[in-house]
Amino acid sequence: MGKPLFYEILEKPATSCVIGICSAIWFYIQKSNIGYSHVGMSYETAVEGHHWRIITSAFSHISVLHLVFNMSALWSLGVVEQLGDIGLGVEYYLHYTLVLVLLSGMLVVAMYHILIQKFKLEYFRRVTAVGYSCVVFGWMTILSVKQPSSKLNLFGFLSLPISFAPFESLIFTSIIVPQASFLGHLSGIIVGYAVGWGLIHGMNNYWAVTLLGWTVVVFVFSLKKSATFDLNFLEIEPVTDPSLPSVRFLAAGNGRTLQMSTLADTGSNLV
């Protein structure tokens, strides 16, 4: 018999939290009748400044089959949290999950840009990506490099050698779920190899917190700029002293004259 589920959750705390978050978001999407176009990421929305969609698209699932497949694979990949003896572990998992979410999302947009601008494939302008697959495929790839003897268990009965799992799963999902994002999965594999081979390295708590902080800032302000939600509490007050004179130029004939004036007591907010 295997370990009780409670002990496995304790051994995979970060993985369990991510699965809980994705499941809760899926439930909310279903209850609120939200479509993938509201949370997914496409080239058009990226160009329009909806950078917050890199985050929402990663943690959102519209289909229950997609959610179950991704979370089943992610649960098996949670073994990364237990491999602290070979330089992995919980901190490594958290650090590079953030890297995978951000870089794989940006790489997808870059691929769309090349296909649209260089190859004139306008179809990819409106293709909307959604789901945690990029991160799942990234962790498959990292584990295939760091622990090639491991096995990936899917749905509790399908076991794949981890060394071939990224590409086997890429083909498998393309056949079983034709609408699955091939480029999204491929981007996760590419970023995963970059991390596994050490091309992207050096993440520690300081850099992880810094990156997370900037991610939150960009997320909030891109959300406000896109006017998707009303964020009136995000306003910048003018940093001016009404008692100080201001300088302005007034046109006078062919030249200009310099005039000093005092700011009025009431000023407008800079939003």
Q: What is the topology?
A:
Elements: H1 5-11, H2 13-32, H3 36-39, H4 43-47, H5 53-59, H6 64-77, H7 90-117, H8 133-146, E1 151-154, E2 158-161, H9 165-176, H10 182-196, H11 205-225, E3 245-252, E4 255-262
Antiparallel strand pairs: 1-2, 3-4
Fold and architecture overview:
- One of its GO terms (molecular function) is serine-type endopeptidase activity.
- The chain crosses the membrane at residues 50-73, 93-116, 123-142, 154-175, 182-200, 206-223.
- InterPro entries: Peptidase_S54_rhomboid_dom, Rhomboid-like_sf, Rhomboid_protease_S54.
- It comes from Nicotiana tabacum.
- Its main location: membrane.
- With 271 residues, the protein is mainly alpha-helical.
- It has one domain (5-226): Rhomboid-like (Rhomboid-like fold), CATH 1.20.1540.10.
- The chain is 54% helix and 9% strand.
- It contains eleven helices and four strands.
- The protein has helices at residues 5-11, 13-32, 36-39, 43-47, 53-59, 64-77, 90-117, 133-146, 165-176, 182-196, 205-225; strands at 151-154, 158-161, 245-252, 255-262.
- The chain has a two-stranded antiparallel ribbon. It has a two-stranded antiparallel sheet with strand order 3-4.
- The termini are far apart.
- Residues 233-242 and 244-271 have low confidence and may be disordered.
